[in-house]
């Protein structure tokens, strides 16, 4: 009999000898295995076969109610249950929004730099993507208004705008409240659906996350997408969307949810139990303490080891440290030298829709313990010094 090839179960690929800070993945050591084992047993005990059949299109009531209560504490406004839809992660929520809220050829605005894999999802749809430059404080509102006026002069209108205002991937920046208000106003005035990617809200290390744009915008103008990937575990493939009843009704009336009966209902019930039992709070507290220490270790290592001319701002949450190299050093060209020194990262150019800044790079501090992050910073400093 032919031996079947061994297929992988993980996305990540480890390269021996390299501290690979290119992966925005959690450390397996911090994933809540025991909490999920307990919750799974409780859910099967409590609901029996009902946990295993097609679920309600919107998602299970216990999880939706918990999300509403949680956001009452972590955001400036709690959604009503009819504002919420459970999704198979933030990625799937974005894909569903593209499917149901755009038509082929529509213009979709994307902050730049931005989460590169969201761009891949947007590109799975026949849309015209247009970059809006962002600075350390998020989307440049003047440029956004100019762009919207230009589109209007051509008889076009932007259908959607994708952005990550809180603990940004890749830059780690957090949009100010003033800028959030301005963004909400401009998007509402121009009838652009704002897709607010809010997956890092729970991972705030210094102060609570600012109000979401969803919470301060006129109802019906923002779809905020959240996730349990960062606060519990990405393998759950579970997230949610908050918008208004009109939009959520459209989503739950889709063929996908009608045919499939809610997204990942068993996982959603299990996560509802993790939340109700107090294990969610304990996990998030542990994650924040762990990632805060890692962020600080990496920042300390970069301060000690990067040569003069490198610049970075320590992020207040999330997974990522953005670094600017001295002008003239191309992070893509530097990468083979860095790998030779035993460290890897993602060149910043990967996150721009166009006009990339080649002297930037993204480091994820989620995967490695502090001592390895300090060593990674030392190796990076060595590689930069060698090419400078
Ligand atoms: C900004 C941002 N959005 C979405 C995701 C993916 O979320 P999910 O796992 O819920 O699909 C990530 C993961 O890295 C992310 O950084």
Number of strands: 13
The number of distinct structural domains comes to 2
Q: Would you identify the CATH architecture of the largest domain?
A: 3-Layer(aba) Sandwich
Distinct compounds present: pyridoxal-5'-phosphate
In short:
The longest helix has 27 residues, at 279-305.
Write structural notes for this entry.
This protein folds into 2 domains: 119 residues, Aspartate Aminotransferase, domain 1; 243 residues, 3-Layer(aba) Sandwich (Aspartate Aminotransferase, domain 2), CATH 3.40.640. Helices cover 42% and strands 15% of the residues. The chain is built from 13 helices and 13 strands. The strands form 3 sheets. An 8-stranded mixed beta sheet has the order 2-9-8-7-6-3-4-5, sandwiched between helices. Strands 10-13-12 form a 3-stranded antiparallel beta sheet. The radius of gyration is 21 Å and the shape is globular. The termini are far apart. 47% of the residues are buried. Bound molecules: pyridoxal-5'-phosphate.
């Amino acid at each position: 009999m032919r031996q079947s090839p061994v297929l992988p179960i993980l996305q990540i690929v480890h390269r021996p000898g390299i501290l690979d800070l290119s992966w925005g993945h959690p450390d397996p050591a911090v994933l809540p295995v025991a909490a999920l084992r307990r919750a799974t047993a409780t859910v099967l005990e409590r609901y029996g076969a009902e946990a295993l059949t097609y679920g309600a299109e919107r998602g299970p009531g216990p999880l939706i109610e918990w999300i509403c209560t949680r956001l009452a504490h972590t955001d400036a406004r709690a959604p009503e249950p009819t504002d919420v839809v459970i999704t198979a992660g933030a990625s799937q929520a974005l894909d569903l929004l593209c499917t149901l809220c755009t038509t082929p050829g529509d213009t979709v605005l994307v902050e730049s730099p931005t989460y590169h894999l969201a761009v891949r999802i947007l590109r799975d749809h026949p849309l015209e993507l247009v970059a809006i430059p962002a600075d350390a404080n998020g989307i440049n509102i003047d440029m956004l208004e100019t762009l919207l006026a230009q589109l209007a002069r051509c008889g076009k209108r932007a259908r959607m705008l994708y952005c990550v205002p809180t603990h940004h991937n890749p830059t780690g920046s957090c949009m100010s409240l003033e800028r959030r208000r301005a963004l909400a106003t401009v998007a509402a005035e121009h009838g652009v659906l704002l897709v607010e990617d809010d997956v890092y809200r729970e991972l705030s290390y210094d102060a609570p996350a600012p109000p979401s744009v969803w919470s301060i915008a006129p109802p019906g103008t923002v779809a905020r997408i959240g996730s349990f990937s960062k606060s519990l575990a990405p393998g759950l493939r579970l997230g949610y969307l908050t918008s208004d009843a009109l939009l959520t009704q459209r989503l739950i009336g889709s063929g996908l949810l009608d045919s499939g009966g809610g997204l990942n209902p068993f996982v959603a019930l299990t996560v509802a139990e993790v939340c109700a039992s107090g294990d969610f709070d304990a996990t998030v507290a542990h994650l924040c303490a762990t990632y805060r220490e890692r962020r600080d270790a990496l920042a300390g290592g970069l301060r000690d080891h990067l040569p003069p001319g490198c610049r970075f701002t320590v992020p207040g949450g999330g997974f990522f440290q953005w670094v600017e190299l001295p002008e003239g050093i191309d992070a893509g060209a530097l990468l083979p030298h860095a790998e030779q020194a035993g460290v890897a990262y993602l060149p910043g150019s990967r996150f721009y829709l166009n006009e990339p800044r080649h002297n930037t790079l993204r480091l994820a501090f989620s995967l490695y313990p502090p001592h390895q992050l300090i060593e990674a910073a030392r190796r990076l400093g060595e590689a930069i010094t060698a090419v400078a």
